[in-house]
Write a structure and sequence with these properties.
about 70% helix
Length: about 475
């Protein structure tokens, strides 16, 4: 029976029918989403159906187009649809297409040989187990609603899926270039709009930028990392574009250290990334700059401290430390697998924070990971970070010198370090369902797709494909 099914599904005629069914299915899902989304007119969606049909066909034919769509939608597309948002919906659809392709055409589940796959698979298993044990009554108060628990699971799964999809489906350096250049081209205006130099900047902000994207730490982290690395180290890029990227980077630095200096998550992870990129790519430059920077911090510590701890930053730091202490007490009931996605949020009502009985979250990715998926989840995440760093560290000297690929590896290593730092300041890398939420994938998705590009580069290198 199995061989008969495979033979039937494997025929070219059946594959054409399957492709048609998938396209119709994607359009149906789009219509359902549009029907439930108050921001979208059903008439507009129906009028756009021919374009959607062509787009669906192209994505089925050329899967990496889906990543360009994710970048476009997450960066400038203002419409979000319930219940999980545009980015999450697209990632799930792309994942479904990929799985169907493996089952129908390839007739096997075939993962690339990369050390990054195992920790993500293990982490997925841990998340599912944590969701199951999270149904147990750990405290005398109900868990969060089941739909929010599922949403918490989805944030983990969708993030991992985005990384795995890029790792498996990008097999031409041109796709990776288009992903990077499209992101920088679409994200760069956010810098100049934020500086408020452009006439009509408020209207431009409302028209072009989504608050869940530009309000995400990782959006700025990857914009700065990629522009810095491509401008300085991609000597095969035309000088006019390198100068333009330097302009974007300087604009970001002006914005981060000026108008937005109170937002630590907006600049601290990026400075970690730039520091790491410089040390990885040009240690001879990094040494004197680090010494100068250290001296400046020591000599001007008090003014720097006063300029950073403005607004509610000092109070925020105090409440976060107290929140971590309380969540640590909650975790003790099941430290191995945690309390399940989202559940600890309800349990915080039983523990007063600074004398108040309120629901709160930790604003820290690592505390969140342990609270939701236990020590096993944190081990998987750290494991993933280590092997991804090792991969990038090895690739930095295996790429064509002074070209796009080598500059991308430098940026990915810096972006990884910056993402790890961002996780200390908020749930930026794996958004918490009751804080940044699943719509926050608009910004966090950049870490997962660009780190997936490291694996894609490694697979291209192994296959002997052009890397420049």
């Amino acid at each position: 029976m199995t061989s008969l099914i495979q033979k039937t599904l494997g025929s070219s005629e059946s594959r054409r029918w399957l492709r048609l069914i998938i396209i119709i299915g994607m359009l149906f899902v789009t219509l359902v989403i549009a029907r439930t989304g108050p921001q979208i007119s059903m008439l507009a969606v129906v009028a756009a159906l021919p374009i959607m049909a062509v787009g669906a066909y192209l994505i089925v034919r050329y899967p990496p187009l889906g990543f360009l769509l994710i970048i476009f939608v997450s960066t400038v597309f203002k419409i979000d649809v319930p219940p999980i948002g545009m980015v999450a919906t697209i990632v799930l659809l792309l994942t479904g297409l990929w799985v169907v392709d493996m089952v129908v055409r390839q007739r096997e589940i075939n993962l690339v040989k990369s050390p990054t796959m195992t920790p993500l698979i293990m982490f997925t298993a841990v998340v599912i187990l944590s969701f199951i044990v999270g149904q147990l009554p750990w405290f005398s108060i109900s868990q969060v609603p089941i739909d929010n628990q599922v949403g918490g699971v989805a944030i983990f799964i969708i993030s991992f899926a985005a990384f795995i999809l890029v790792a498996h489906q990008v097999r031409d350096i041109r796709w990776l270039k288009w992903m990077v250049y499209l992101f920088m081209g679409l994200a760069a205006p956010a810098v100049f709009i934020g500086m408020r130099f452009l006439p009509g900047w408020q209207q431009l902000n409302q028209l072009l930028l989504h608050p869940k994207t530009t309000g995400g730490s990782l959006f700025w982290l990857w914009l700065a990392s990629l522009t810095f690395s491509q401008a300085l180290f991609n000597k095969k890029l035309a000088m006019k574009w390198r100068v333009a990227l330097v302009g974007v980077l300087l604009g970001y630095l002006y914005l981060a250290l000026g108008r937005n200096r109170a937002w630590t998550s907006g600049w601290a992870p990026t400075f970690v990334a730039l520091f790491v990129i410089l040390w990885v790519a040009r240690p001879k430059w990094a040494m004197p700059l680090t010494m100068i920077g250290t001296a400046v911090v020591i000599l001007l510590f008090q003014p720097i401290y006063n300029s950073v701890f403005i607004g509610d930053n000092e109070y925020s730091a105090m409440t976060r430390l107290e929140a971590w202490r309380i969540v640590g007490q909650i975790i003790k009931v099941n430290p191995i697998l945690g309390l399940g996605p989202g559940n600890y949020y309800n349990y915080t009502l039983l523990f007063p924070i600074l004398g108040w009985y309120v629901e709160f979250n930790s604003h820290n990715n690592y505390v969140d990971i342990v609270a939701q998926t236990g020590i096993l989840g944190l081990i998987c995440f750290i494991w993933f970070v280590i092997v991804t760093w090792q991969l990038g560290w090895r690739l930095r000297n295996q790429m064509p010198k002074d070209g796009f690929a080598q500059a991308f590896v430098y940026a990915a290593l810096g972006g990884l370090a910056g993402s790890v730092a961002a996780g200390m300041l908020g749930d930026w890398v794996l958004p918490f369902v009751y804080n940044i939420g699943i719509f926050g994938l608009r910004a966090s998705i950049y870490t997962w797709i660009f780190l997936g590009g490291l694996v894609a580069l490694d697979q291209m290198r192994r296959a002997g494909l052009p890397l420049d």
